[in-house]
Each structure stands twice: as structure tokens, then as C-alpha cells.
Amino acid sequence: MTIELYELAGAEDDRPFSLYCWRIRFALEHKQLDFEPMGCRFTDKDVIAFSGQDQVTVLVDTGYVISASWAVACYLEQAYPDRPSLVGRSAEQPLSRFCVDWTDTVLHGTLIRLLASDIYAHLHEKK
Ligand SMILES: N[C@@H](CCC(=O)N[C@@H](CS)C(=O)NCC(=O)O)C(=O)O
């Protein structure tokens, strides 16, 4: 069964722009797991209503529905222990969590200033 990754997309499905979902793309690539990208627009929340909330990141794997990138990363770590480790499995996890918090509070603010106009230019007519 294919892993599905729901992520924000604009006019082109192959230009997903959620920084949170990028993390999970990197995680899936790192773990060499195939996945199906599922585009979702800002105004198209019905697509992810099954997850019980209204934001991406959402990952579906063998019937499991996981939302929020950190929870998804931890799920992948537990579900695929034979694949290369990304966030660590015990003692290392707090360091990974620190990196995530730093990325959220420091790096995203800078990145979004660089990306915002490009995201706007590629929005779908549905937004
Ligand atoms: N903590 C969440 C962040 C969720 C989030 O902020 N998602 C944004 C995309 S970057 C979203 O879905 N925005 C659409 C909206 O709020 O309508 C995660 O790590 O996945």
C-alpha cells in the first residue's frame, strides 16, 4: 500500500510549498520510502477532512492517518526501524526536537520572506 503525503500545492501539483511538508519529503527520501504526493489547496480543506483537522502535513500509511510533521517523522521512525534513522529513536530525539523548534522559530521567518512572492505567483485559482 502506497504512503500518501498531503501537502499544500498551488497551480502546479509538482510545486508543493509547505515548509512543514518539505521536511516529510526529505524524511521519506532519507528513508527511501515511495510515496504518492497528494496536492491540497488553501480553500480545499475537504481533501484532508478525514484527518480530523484542517492543516497539512497529513500522511496516510496502511490505514494510519498522522498529522503534523514532527508526529509524522516520529511515526516513520517507529514504523520503519530498518530504514536509515532521521530523528533518532530514544536519547537522540530531544536534539532533533530542538532542531525542529529552532527551524520553526528562527529559520522559517527568514525562508518565508524569500519564498512568499513566489508562492503567491504560483497559487491555484482556487487559492
Ligand atoms: N505543525 C504543523 C504545521 C501545520 C501548518 O502550519 N500547516 C500549514 C502549511 S505550512 C497549513 O496547512 N496551512 C493552511 C491553513 O492553515 O489553512 C506541522 O508541523 O505540520
Automatic annotation (TrEMBL):
It comes from Microvirga arsenatis. Residues 15-84 form the GST N-terminal domain. InterPro entries: Glutathione_S-Trfase_N, Thioredoxin-like_sf. It comes from the Bacteria. This is GST N-terminal domain-containing protein.
